[in-house]
Amino acid sequence: FEKLCSISLSHINVYACLVCGKYFQGRGLKSHAYIHSVQLSHHVFLNLHTLKFYCLPDNYEIIDSSLEDITYVLKPTFTAQHIAHLDKQAKLSRAYDGTTYLPGIVGLNNIKANDYANAVLQALSNVPPLRNYFLEEENYRHIQRPPGDIMFLLVQRFGELMRKLWNPRNFKAHVSPHEMLQAVVLCSKKNFQITKQGDGVEFLSWFLNALHAALGGTKRKKKSEW
């Protein structure tokens, strides 16, 4: 889900409580995370931006290698070597809940009426050239966009979703597309929504053209980074 404080609805300096899973802002005295830790005795929090762990209310950083699985689920990374072998090594992975799954062949949560978009996103995640490009964030990290341009958000969210779909260390055999779909709603000016059924073919056409333009493409052939 979107990384917003459950109380202030701010996206700035947000921490996840690792006991209940709720998001809270800040960790200083009188912050929402601090108050939550005192009232409910929930003490371990993760900064969703820096991916560092803290103990509250004592307010010290927790450094423990056993927590690395959590940060990897939130931000999985892929090397060029790993990407090159994705289609050569079809190996089942075991999720934290005990279920087995094949990376890249996992479910997307149907939040309300977004199954039309889920089908398109899952299909695109299994197109090797497209998948390989977005699995490696360095491919598009340094693309310059005009100030105030929101369309590049689609590129960022699609890359994040692609890496989560292909993550061999997921906690569950399904992934939430919530942040990806929020970017779709925003960038399409609500032409495609989470709460209303849409046409899959129309969404596919719009989405690919929007990605192409966000990556610096034009209507001429071979003019985008992807």
Automatic annotation (TrEMBL):
E.C. code: 3.4.19.12
PANTHER family: U4_U6.U5 TRI-SNRNP-ASSOCIATED PROTEIN 2, UBIQUITIN CARBOXYL-TERMINAL HYDROLASE
InterPro entries: Papain-like_cys_pep_sf (IPR038765), Peptidase_C19_UCH (IPR001394), Ub_carboxyl-term_hydrolase (IPR050185), USP (IPR028889), Znf_RING/FYVE/PHD (IPR013083), Znf_UBP (IPR001607)
Principal location class: nucleus
Single GO biological process annotation from the record: mRNA processing
Domain of life (superkingdom): Eukaryota
SUPFAM superfamilies: Cysteine proteinases, RING/U-box
A Pfam family per the record: zf-UBP
Lineage: Eukaryota, Metazoa, Chordata, Craniata, Vertebrata
Domain UBP-type: from-to ranges: 1-81
One GO location term (cellular component): spliceosomal complex
Keyword Nucleus: yes
Gene3D superfamilies: Cysteine proteinases, Zinc/RING finger domain, C3HC4 (zinc finger)
USP domain residues: 106-226
Protein name per Swiss-Prot or TrEMBL: ubiquitinyl hydrolase 1
Catalytic activity: Thiol-dependent hydrolysis of ester, thioester, amide, peptide and isopeptide bonds formed by the C-terminal Gly of ubiquitin (a 76-residue protein attached to proteins as an intracellular targeting signal)
Molecular functions per Gene Ontology: cysteine-type deubiquitinase activity; zinc ion binding
Organism (species): Sakesphorus luctuosus
